[in-house]
Amino acid sequence: MNDNKKTDGANFLSNGSWYQMYMLSKYWKSDLEFYRDDLHFLHLLIDKYFIWIVKPENLKIVEELKNKVAHLNLKSKDLIVKMSKHTIQLGYMVDSPNNGSIKTIKTEHEDLEQEIAEFVAMFRENRKEVFSITEYIIDSEKLASIINA
User: Fold this and answer.
1) Cα distance between residue 79 and residue 127, in whole Å
2) Dihedral through CA 133, CA 136, CA 142, CA 144, nearest 10?
3) Shortest CA distance to 90 belongs to which of 132, 27, 133, 134?
4) 87 neighbors 26 (Cβ within 8 angstroms)
5) Cα–Cα distance between 32 and 38 in angstroms, integer?
6) Are 78 and 17 in contact (CB under 8 A)?
7) What was the pLDDT predicted at 57?
8) CB within 8 A of 65, min separation 6: which ones?
């Protein structure tokens, strides 16, 4: 079995059907919508604890974290728009395979796959950071006693 994802992706694009690419794009879009919703949750989590922070160094850490979450949120929205457009193009190719530029659509598909992979890696790293920083701030600000009160 070949573990090289890029090779497998290129092989899929040369041998896969337009319908398979269309379904994969719908799946990617659904995942991106989930990530967007999860980023909204992370934003609410940060806001919930932000009001209790009194130490200036913690305020700075949280403000930077909020900016990172906001950046990822914008990136997720941008990718959702791109995926929507791409899925529509693939839908046209499913209906009429001779329409459009085959090479352009396949290249776009590969580029989107790469963008999504990079986004997911950033998202996972950011999510871990949010929970790690939240735990640190709860401990350093003695917020546990306020939260449990």
Assistant:
1) 18
2) 80
3) 27
4) yes
5) 10
6) no
7) 86
8) 46, 129, 130, 133
Q: Note the pLDDT of residue 131.
A: 85
Task: Report which residue type is found at 56.
Answer: P
Reading the block at residue 111, the tokens are 């580029």
* Contact between 41 and 134 (Cβ < 8 Å): no
Supply φ then ψ for residue 22, to 5 degrees.
-60, -45
As averages over each run of 10 residues, the pLDDT of the chain (149 residues) reads 40 62 94 95 83 83 92 96 93 75 88 97 93 81 59
| DSSP state for residue 108 in the 8-state scheme | H
Within 13 Å of residue 64, how many CA atoms lie on the same side as its CB? 10
Lookup result for tokens 């950046």 = 71
What's the Cα-to-Cα distance from 57 to each of 60, 100, 114, 126, 128, rounded to whole Å?
5, 54, 36, 19, 20
